Amino acid sequence: MTDKQPFEGVVAEHAGTVLRVCRAVLGPADADDAWSETFLSALKAYPRLPVDANVEAWLVTIAHRKAIDVTRRSARGAVPVAEVPNRPMAGGADDRDLDLTRSLAALPGKQRYAVVYHYLAGLPYGDVAAVIGGSAEAARRAAADGIANLRKTHPGDTARKGASR
Amino acid sequence: MTTNNRDQADLFGDLLPINETHLRALRDRLAVDADSAGVLDVAYRTIDTPVGTLLLAATALGLIRVAFDSEGLDAVLGVLAADVSPRILNAPKRLDGAARELDEYFAGQRHTFDLPLDLSLSKGFRRAVLGYLPDIGYGLTASYGAVAAAIGNPKAVRAVGTACATNPLPVVVPCHRVIRADGQVGAYRGGPQAKRVLLSLEAAA
């Protein structure tokens, strides 16, 4: 079938990934609102999306714009961007999640976005570059720098690597 | 590169887990927000009835589709996406009235439906047939030929059959009351057994 699937199917398929992306780039406090705004915008624009478009890359692009908006709003409200509120994450996260979101929040924006969109959302660097601007090579470098920085600030998880799966 | 990718993916691995209840709440909120924002072109839900699970779908104008389980939920939604709009969400609220009236109907307490209908999936002659069907009262039946005659086209018996077979709003628009001249129930979108269930429900009340 070449027809576009009902939007409910798009939500069912991508809701979880988009929420994890929102949490990773914004922290838990703003993630739910960013998720809601992302899917509402996506629903509005959905009839105009080409049938052969990469839906996940499209959703991440919208989520990225929402994340930038939220970050700007927070900055205007004089809330330090790099600080993640010290309270339980909605949906039952644990300390390791808070550690990770804190470490991600401490990364320069471009590195954080590149790491999350490539490693969490699974987008190839070409698509990551389309979302955050610049070349695919620059996106690859930003992701590599981001991973290197996370290793420094977040040693617990890199040590855990391989043990959990 | 692939190996490296897999290693780094473990950075997130089981972190930032998604709680399904939380996600369900976000999806419910999206359905409500989309409806208030006027961007929900088709809302749907399912209900359980004596003729199996029914899919109910509505546009802003009214109920546009009632579908039987045997038609396939995904297939029906796919056709709605192509024919009406892909802006479709599981959003029960818009169907509250339809669900309540159908519950009352299946409980034998309701004999006519009082719901806004969107008949845009049915055109021309077929739509004229659907417009006539509510005139066949609850508990009564009419033959395909009688319906053809009643709408002024007595030779269009087969076309009446097609109009009934493609009725986008079965149960609510009572094509089940149209039966064969020899008294057999004839074909039905939900299968002949569903048609018999509806006819005996109405006969008993």
Describe, in plain words, how this protein is organized in 3D:
The complex is a heterodimer of chains A (165) and B (205). Chain A has one domain: Butyryl-CoA Dehydrogenase, subunit A, domain 3 (Up-down Bundle). Chain A is 70% helix and 0% strand. Chain A is built from 8 helices and no strands. Chain A has helices at residues 7-26, 28-45, 55-76, 95-106, 109-120, 125-132, 136-153, 155-160. In chain A, helix 5 packs across helix 7 and helix 6 (125-132) crosses helix 7 (136-153). The longest helix of chain A is centred in the middle third of the chain and has 22 residues, at 55-76. The N and C termini of chain A lie far apart (36 Å). Mean pLDDT of chain A is 84; it is low at 83-92 and 158-165. Chain B has 205 residues and is an alpha/beta fold. Chain B has 2 domains: 20-106, Double Stranded RNA Binding Domain, CATH 3.30.160; 124-204, Winged helix-like DNA-binding domain superfamily/Winged helix DNA-binding domain (Arc Repressor Mutant, subunit A), CATH 1.10.10. In chain B, 41% of the residues lie in helices and 14% in strands. In chain B, a hairpin with a 2-residue loop joins strand 1 (42-49) and strand 2 (52-58). In chain B, helix 5 (124-132) packs across helix 7 and helix 6 packs across helix 7. The radius of gyration of chain B is 21 Å and the shape is elongated. The N and C termini of chain B lie far apart (71 Å). The interface between A and B is large, with 45 and 38 residues.
